[in-house]
Amino acid sequence: MELHLSAHRAVIQFSLRIYTAALLELAYSQGFSLHEKTIGIIGVGNVGTKVWHKAEALGLRVLLNDPPLERQGSIFPLRSLDELMEADIVTLHIPLTRTGSMQRIIF
Hints:
Oligomer: single chain
Distance between the termini: 36 Å
Number of strands: 3
Helix content: 40-55%
Strand order of the largest sheet: 2-1-3
Shape: globular
Strand content: 5-15%
Structural class: alpha/beta
């Protein structure tokens, strides 16, 4: 079990490095700075929270959305999906569900 958790952490850390590099490459190739851009993060669980902190470190303004977390009484400053769609970058960190109230969150 410990090996599985360790591998899971390594995958998340590697994914975040790729994500960060991709954001920087996108900014460079399109000729804009990430500083003062806005990123909307849908899903503020384990990975979404890590992306939040990476994005802030890159100078991005962060908007968060997580309906299940909001229903539980989140301490995070959550925004509506409409507000998030105004962001320069929107990223999803939610499970794919085919049933239940969250099955049509975006599409």
